[in-house]
Amino acid sequence: MSAMSQTQTEAGPRTEVLLDVRAVRKVYEGRGRSVEAVRDLTFAVARGDLVCVVGPSGAGKTTLLKCIAGLLAPTSGEVVLEGESVDGPPPGMAVVFQEYGRSLFPWMTVRKNVELPLKQKKLPKARRAELVGQALDAVGLGDVHGAYPWQLSGGMQQRVAIARAIAYEPHILLMDEPFAAVDAQTRADLEDLVRSLWQRLGVTTLFVTHDIDEAVYLGQRVLVLSSSPTVVLDDVAVDLPAQRDQLTTRSSARFTELRGHVFAQIQRAKKHSGASVVE
Amino acid sequence: MTSAPTRAAPVRSSRAGGAGRLTGANALLGVLGFAAFLASLEAVPRLGLVSPDYLPPASRIGAALVELVGEAGFWTALGDTVRGWSTGLLIAVVLGIAVGFVVGTVPVLREVTASTIEFLRPIPSVALIPLAVLVFGTDLRSVLLLVVYASFWQVLVQVLYGVQDVDPVAAETARTFGLGRWARIRHVTWPTALPYLLTGVRLAAAVALILAITAELVIGAPGLGNEIGVAQSGGAVARMYALVVVTGLLGVAVNVLARRLEKWLLSWHPSLRREVAA
Ligand SMILES: Nc1ncnc2c1ncn2[C@@H]1O[C@H](COP(=O)(O)OP(=O)(O)OP(=O)(O)O)[C@@H](O)[C@H]1O
Ligand SMILES: [Mg+2]
Q1: Which residues in chain A have Cβ-Cβ distances shorter than 8 Å to B172?
Q2: In the prediction, which pLDDT does A272 show?
Q3: Contact B95/B87 with Cβ under 8 angstroms?
Q4: Region class of A166: left (phi > 0), else alpha (psi between -120 and 50), else beta
Q5: Among A103, A106, A146, whose Cβ lies nearest the Cβ of B173?
Q6: Which ligand is nearest the CA of A230, by number?
Q7: Any bridge partners for residue A223, and if so which?
Q8: Domain of A253?
Q9: A56 lies in a domain?
């Protein structure tokens, strides 16, 4: 773990902006029909932060993430990562997709899946082996290197996807509703895994979810999106203690208060969207 | 061949456009069926149901077969057929992969070529026999032209399906991890298309054998087909049947080989997966 934990010291308490989303708008142009998925999003993420983006289904969260990841070009506005405008997948970024089953390559073993991006980075063999071993150990999968992804459970597959992302040593980690398809217990475990990895590695993380509880439990900050056409409704600082625990944190008064606040914002968002559809 | 029946059913062919019927029966049934076929072949002429002049009993065909195996000329003919078949198949597969990947990964090319492919593909290869004779006479190149034309489309169509089947999530994953165009073709498109390609190769191998024998028989290029024609015109009916049996065995061997190849290369594929200890 030594090599990976070095990044932690660098992260520190600085407030340098790592990701800057500036007036991003995205309109999907279809046949005779255009959908304004994202109207106007502006926010910044500081280096080392863990920001949750929460919004109702269809709010354009995936669209936003794809714009940030350089997979989609915004219709207008701009995404700036580490001072450079994004116009294709940027090198220092890793993405964990919601569809873990389709995101892992079934023709490769777990080890090969995690190693492939590192090969692409042209890391030497020994370094690759080290990173793959550390990453799989970190997600508790030190014993399945030789298995194929389809031989694992859903939760294990998603952990492989997370291991692949952290082995890549990204400066920023994007996660798009990564736990939407796993059961409640696995989901709680994976949430704690993400928190602990973030604390240990200090990697800037943008976590998208439609689950308010999850957003408040995980995030240092929660961005609340309106329904489509999307704007940022609220930016909530989560002042819960750094050490969080599924039981005590979720039953604390402050947690209930925060989630109530976010919930009210989202309800308001739904009413608003009703009006904007009529327009 | 005995271990072959344990293999999984060819589920893959349904994925690849349902093109697997030609070789659908498994090898055990093939062997049983072949035994039953031999038995009736012995009985029918002996019972006088068909004149032995047209259909000699299996035992006489067997004797002719043994005789054949002792002749150097037979092995030369077999070698000629296998060479025409394998060379043609190889050319078709290489061409099919190259054209399939280029056309399949460039949407504009796909649109532009679709109608042409749909027009050229159904032309029966045997309709090109006069052309082949006109251009190449009766040598190997005539056989190759027909074999390549027939089997190329089998490969191309499957590769086009396969290249299209790339999962968008897998492709986006590859892009976010910095895999460039070539790396994506190698690590994502190629493995996705491989099951389709192998189905195409299996179908092409069968078609290629048919065309190789046809070309030899009709054009008179050297090979088993030509030998069959010679035996027939010389009244050596049992020998003719023995040669037909050899072509059948060749077909079985080709199919078994193709399936072995699939099994070996596609252990990860859903149609062949089994509980392997991690
Ligand atoms: N490729 C596309 N073409 C056209 N419209 C699209 C496309 N992708 C998404 N949309 C539309 O954009 C809007 C936002 O979709 P998006 O997938 O970004 O929402 P989301 O917030 O991620 O939803 P969910 O929580 O259900 O995943 C939706 O109205 C959707 O129909
Ligand atoms: Mg989404």
Answers
A1: 66, 69, 71, 95, 97
A2: 61
A3: no
A4: alpha
A5: A103
A6: 1
A7: A53, A235
A8: 2-92+170-278
A9: yes
Domain membership of residue A117 (yes or no) is no
- The answer to whether A56 and A229 are in contact (CB under 8 A) is no
Ligand closest to CA A228: 1
Terminal C-alpha separation, chain B:
29
Residue nearest to atom 31 of ligand 1 (CA): A58
Reported in sequence order, the residue ranges of A55-212 that DSSP labels E, i.e. its strands, are 76-81, 84-85, 93-96, 172-176, 204-209
Number of separate domains in chain A: 1
Task: Please give the distance, rounded to the nearest whole angstrom, from the Cα atom of residue A228 to the centre of ligand 1.
Answer: 9
Reported as a single tens digit per residue, the pLDDT across B108-161 is 998 899 899 889 888 888 899 999 999 998 888 999 999 999 999 999 999 999
DSSP assignment of B143-202 equals HHHHHHHHHHHHHHHHHHHHHHT--HHHHHHHHHTT--HHHHIIIIIHHHHHHHHHHHHH
> Can you tell me which atom of ligand 1 is nearest the CA of A59?
21
| CATH at residue A175 | 3.40.50.300
Complex ipTM value: 0.85
Return the half-sphere exposure (C-beta side, CA atoms, 13 A cut-off) of residue B261: 16
For residue B184, the chain A residue with the least C-alpha distance is: A120
Q: How far is Cα B112 from Cα A267, in angstroms, rounded to an integer? A: 50
Residue B10 has pLDDT above 50, yes or no: no
Ligand nearest to the CA of A176: 2
pTM of the model: 0.81
Contacts of B270 in chain A (CB under 8 A): 106, 150
Please report which confidence band the pLDDT of residue A5 belongs to, taking 50, 70 and 90 as the band edges: very low
Q: Which residue do the tokens 């344990």 mark? A: B6
Question: Is the CB of residue A120 less than 8 Å away from at least one CB of chain B?
Answer: yes
| Ion ligand 2 nearby residues (CB, 5 A) | A 62
Confidence of residue A100 (pLDDT cuts 50, 70, 90): confident
Domains and CATH numbers, chain B: 71-277 (1.10.3720.10)
Q: Which atom of ligand 1 is nearest to the CA of A64?
A: 18
Taking an 8 Å Cβ-Cβ cutoff, which residues of chain B contact chain A? 167, 169-170, 172-173, 175-179, 183, 187-188, 191, 194, 268-270, 273, 275-276, 278
